[in-house]
Every structure is written in C-alpha cells, then in structure tokens.
C-alpha cells in the first residue's frame, strides 16, 4: 500500500536530496519564450481577453486546428483586434472551418494547410506542422509561395521522417494548448493520449494544456522538481492531482504535497488516486513516479489575470 | 495490430451470433424506473429546465452531494419550482454547502446527512447513502427521527458491511449522475475511477454520467449489446468513443460502428484509441472487450429535449 503522510500547510523542500531529471518552473508556462506556440483547438476559448492577449504576446506563433480558427475569429468582437491577432497557420481537414472564417483569414494572408489524411486528427496534424516549423525555418517560407495560401496535403507535413528530425532538433519548444480538455469526452481522452505520444515522439516539446479550471501536463518517469514561490502556491494554485492515465504505476516519492506519498501504488482500477491534493512546499514540490503521470493544477484565473504572472 | 473495418453508414447487427452478457437499451437511461436516483455533484447543472424536470420525474429519488445542493437551489429561479424539486438527501462533509441553502432545505424537511470521514469523497459518501436507501427501506425512516434532520457520521452509512449487503441485494438500481465530468480534471478522473469501483463493489448499480456533451458509462468485460433504433442513431447520437482508462486492453470484436475492430489492442500509452467513431447499426451495436472500458456517446441535447425520449 505504501506510505501516506499528512503535512503541515507549509514546508520547505530540500531538492538537493534528490536526483532531479527534469525541472519545471510553473510560471514559465505563461512567460515569454522564443520557440513557443499557442495551439487553439475547436472549443470555446474560455479565458478573458486580457489573459488571452498576454498569453498570445508571450508565444512566438499561434496555430489553429481546423475549427479552432472559428473560435479565434469569434473570440474578438472588433475587427481591429481580429486583424491584430492572426494565426500563423490553420491546419486540418477543414471539415469544421466556416467559409466566412476561411475567407477572412485567407484575405489576411494566413497560411491555411489542408490535410485530408484519415489516420491522424486535426490536433496531430497541427503538431506536425508546429514541429516542422521549429525544425526548419524554411518550411513556412516554402509554403508562402503557394497560390492562395492553401496547401493541400502538404508534402513536408506528410513526411514521416520529420518526426525523427524533431528528435535530433534538441532546442526545446514550449507548446500551450487551449481547448484540449472539456469538449466531448473521447476528445478529452484523445488529448491525454497526445500528451504521452508527444513525450515519446517529440521529447523536446514541453506541452501544457490550459483549461477553464486548471493546467495539465505529463510528468515523465523519474524525479521532477516543480518550482514555484510561496506566493504563487497561496494565491494562484488551488487543488492538484497525480493521475496515472496510461495504467497503474507506483509513485516512488513526493515531497511538498499536503498528502505526500512513498512507494504508493496508484491506478484507476485500483481506485487509489492522489486527487484533491495541494501544494504545501514553499519553494516547490518533488515528484518521482516509475511511469509518466498526468498532473493537473487548479488555477485561480482571476489571480492569473491580475498578477504580474506573465512578466519575467 | 488487429483488424479495422470501415462500414457503410447503415448496417444491421445480427446479435444472435454473439454471446451477450449484458444488454443496455440506451433510451432506458432517460426513462422511468422504480429503483432509480439522480445524483447531483457540485458543478453547474448544464441542461434546460425542461430536460431536467423530465429526468427528475423519471427517477425515484434525488441526492445532492454537498455543494450539489447549491446547484439545485440556484438552478431554479422561482420558489414554487424550488419547493417542488426537493432532494431526498444532501450528503457530504458539507464544506461546500452554503448556509442559506442548508437552511432552506432544512426548512423543507430535507434530510441532511453530514459525513466527515476523510478517506472518501462526497461522491462516494452519496453512493453509500443511495446504496443503503435501496438496500433497506427502513434506513431513511430511521434517519427521519433524527433531530433537525441533520445526521452526523451516520452509523449505517459508515458500516462497511452494507456494501456486502448491496451485493446480495440483486434488484437493479439505475443511477444517473450529473456533473461528474467537466469540473477540475482530478475530479473528472476520480469520477472515472468511481465507475470502475461501482462495477466492482455494487454490480447491481447501472451508472450513467450525463455531461453537457455526452453520456458516459462503463462497459464490463465480455459481450454487450447496446440497443437503439435507427431514428435514435440518426437524430440523438453524435460521435462515440471506446476508452480504455484503466490500462491497455484488447477489443475482441465490435459490430455496428463506422469503424469496427477485431482483436484490436487499445491503450492511451499505445496511442491507439477508438475515438470520433459513430454508430451505424440500425438496431444497435455489439461490443466485446477483454477488460471494462468507458464508452462515451455524444448526445444532441436539443433533440433529447424535443423528442419523446423520456416516454416509454
């Protein structure tokens, strides 16, 4: 069964005790980063305009997956805003993109990359274009020469070898995805599977899902330090969960949670999950699991908005 | 890898070929049933008043899990409605129940069962009370003798043996849960785990989650027939998914899906999932998996509302 310890509401985590394989400063999800992308999937954009624009400005490119472009278009009421916040690419089989939206963005010279392949969804097709974009700066330029800015079945993006290129391209890419969760439930689970696929196939990607309630990401197996300040812990984060969604696993050790565990078996079938937990570390939290697990952290969006959270 | 077959948009399923362990007529989720309960968890109730009232009338009792009572209270604007649709029980540790709501329902003689145990959540505590209610009709009567209708740490409900009573109590119970999905993501996954726990511990429960987008339930291992009419298929259902959330498994055989599979390995880590699928059987769908899997079916709520879907 392993060990569960209930901690006081504030403790200090001594990270030097641990073999840390990966460090995640949660604030960096929101901060400016050179090789970074916002990906908008086809659900309502549930954040304030203020937060959205700050997020936009802190990411280098924006990709809309098919009908995600409708959501970006509808998010802005006024034409000036709409014209200011243009996606870099619209990618997908275009079965959801409304004609009016397609014509609008085409008129603004947005690159629309139509991909009909049945064996990957619009989310995966978008990832492929993002990966190509960051792997080879010439790809977008090549595309720009195409008539009407509509590229059908883009060769470079159908090329299976470019995932391998991705593996050799070690410069990290930050990917912030909106609307991956909270749609139809099979979409939600497909998005969870995409976290695992990305970790495996594009390990230089750091992928984060922002939802109306929380921040989700996949912790790889081994020791990870999540770092944050006492203020962030107290004002920005609510509850959190460690979610073994690919099958049962063992959480070897945590330090910095209200309910820390050691050698603790966790799984959905086993009915043993660390949910409704929260951070108590004043400098962060250490988590070591023998398999990759999904972490969700409740975000107090009204504080994210007010805070200088987007500034370095 | 197994076999995947793309079917025409309408086929007839010959169920007589198969060994059927369980039959689910999807319409019955919404229809009148004697031993049945609506359980409301603490999220916004996202359905029209019309649908909610039809659903209410077709279920025998209603339980609110803690702050779920706030949502029921807020759902109705007018006092007549509020007084008409009173929950049978409010159950939980009551850390979310607003005072105004508690006083209102107490004034209406609603039974408020306060349970402080840390090792189960409000959802599980509510299930315990529902199970006790259907296992022994005297339990609610006993509770009614309690002063102020507030029962602290209800003994019968803390009694572990009553789950075993549940196993012997073979008369089926239908449980329709609102707001289990689409809250904080750790809550969503806790709800998924609860589907597996219920199947194991209270196999006489048929549990269904209704979300703003879809219907979710757990298919047990072995052959199941899902039955529906051609009209229901065409007008009420959208896409569907077969989701192996407790770890990888093999779907032995399906018949009646747009993309049917045979001996098909599926898992989140494997990145192989049957999502964005749909029904093409004109009389239903056969699904046989070697482990329990979650099924989601997109519901066209605007049609559910208009249709005589709630009538037998």
TrEMBL record, chains A, B:
GO terms for MF: ATP binding; kinase activity; thiamine binding; thiamine diphosphokinase activity
Chain ranges of the Thiamin pyrophosphokinase thiamin-binding domain: 231-293
Pathway entry: Cofactor biosynthesis; thiamine diphosphate biosynthesis; thiamine diphosphate from thiamine: step 1/1
Pfam name, any one: TPK_B1_binding
Keyword ATP-binding: yes
UniProtKB keywords: ATP-binding, Kinase, Nucleotide-binding, Transferase
Domain of life, source organism: Eukaryota
EC number of the protein: 2.7.6.2
Family indicated by similarity: Belongs to the thiamine pyrophosphokinase family.
Full protein name: Thiamine pyrophosphokinase
Organism: Eremothecium cymbalariae (strain CBS 270.75 / DBVPG 7215 / KCTC 17166 / NRRL Y-17582)
Taxonomic classification: Eukaryota, Fungi, Dikarya, Ascomycota, Saccharomycotina
